[in-house]
Amino acid sequence: MKKNDMTSAPRDSQWREELRKSKTAKERASIPRVKMPELDPAYRVTCNEEVNQGISAEQAVLEASRCMDCPDPQCVTGCPVGINIPGFIKNIERGDFHSAAVVLKETSALPAVCGRVCPQEKQCESRCVYHKMKKQPVAIGYLERFAADRERSSGEKVTPSVAPANGKKVAVVGSGPAGLSFAGDMIKRGYEVTVYEALHEIGGVLKYGIPEFRLPNSVVDDEIETLSGLGVKFEKDCVIGKTLSYDDIIAMGYDGLFVASGAGLPRFMNIPGENLIGVMSSNEYLTRVNLMGAGRSGGETPVLTGRRVAVIGGGNTAMDSVRTARRMGAEVAMIVYRRGEAEMPARAEEVKHAKEEGVVFMNLCNPVEYRGDEKGRVNMMLVQRMELGEPDESGRRSPVPIPGAVDEIPVDLVIVSVGVSPNPLIPNSVGGLEVSKRGTIVVDDVTMRSSLAPLYAGGDIVRGGATVILAMGDGRRAAAAMDEALCG
Q1: Which superfamily does 267-416 belong to?
Q2: How do strand 192-196 and strand 233-235 relate by DSSP bridges?
Q3: Closest CA to 308 of 409, 399, 397, 240
Q4: How far is CA 421 from CA 268, 343, 466, 478, in A?
Q5: The domain 169-264+422-487: what is its CATH number?
Q6: What global pTM score does this model have?
Q7: Low-confidence residues of the chain, pLDDT below 70?
Q8: Predicted pLDDT at 8
Q9: Looking at residue 65, what is its pLDDT?
Q10: Which fold has domain 13-154?
């Protein structure tokens, strides 16, 4: 296969059969799951270096050999973008790392990103046949990261093939995972693609929302560079709905528009004291630190810091915030969450890392009031102790206040991470667009098409809150449907 040929190798029965014979199923099942090398907690809280260091080639080949190469691979059904998981893993097992990257890039525009931040334990790995054996699943995420990183460092870059230009052009609003996934699929289909980003850097939530100790900016930049090399155009500092209107986009001759503007409107709890100095949203906090370099040497963007920092919430963004606070000098960094640890939506790995880094978990606690000093700066948090009652609509047990159990907790910075709402700019500025009560754009679940024929949407602007991989899946479905509508 040529190094830049993106046509997947056929399911080569000969070498697949040779791999099967090289180890019995019992031998494969006896191999323990690989452990991810990590930076020492005492060191990593002093810097912004990536915590997970990546597995070696030897570890990757051994872990890949655990894969049973199931005739009906359920792991693929658990992947929102439909990656050929056995295909890339078996290429790793036989030591053909380049072909593994080729298989990955057939369907994923961001494999190095997904290998780091996707909740594989709830998706592809949750369908692994090893669960039936009561064993740990194949480390699909670690292997995806390995193949993508190996391609980046090898100098043998995989360049997806692009169809001849079809004379049509499409616009994308937002350069987060949904927008980039859509752009990648459409450029490969022969469309002229322009991505409009409101901020001064491309990457959306991958840049402003996820700290570099989880997802280095260099990794995101490399994925964006690949798309740019294919011909995707990027326009920064352009707010669709302000800088350009929907009518402007149509007047510019775009045949289709994909809206992936995210959910950047923070939510608060509407409790007393939320307007005090030192109470802020996780969106603002992480954007200042991650995107604008607050706290770094030579950085000009200010950010509040504290000795005792409380982060309200139990999701991945809350973990990102509290772990960032530790790196920003917090002596005591607390997670305050109204349910128990078992109900936390955050990835288990993120909870583990937070604990290793000295984060205090105040589970079954809910803030009911913030109090401040004479200068209006928060210095106290009143916390209601909770217990779990009956399950709510999501199936999780609802937290119920314990009468009279209210504690006073000294704090000097509170970061609220209890969810986000969709960016209202485009829903409010496009006439005739059907919008839900939550402010999300209403789309067909299969095609991602809105009530306006040329406008499709995906990611948080549709879901109200989603993982990177779910947003990417939306982008892929929208690209396929738009292509069908425009070119048949």
Answers
A1: FAD/NAD(P)-binding domain (3.50.50.60)
A2: parallel
A3: 409
A4: 10, 22, 11, 22
A5: 3.50.50.60
A6: 0.91
A7: 1-13, 15-17, 20-21
A8: 41
A9: 95
A10: Fumarate Reductase Iron-sulfur Protein; Chain B, domain 2 (1.10.1060)
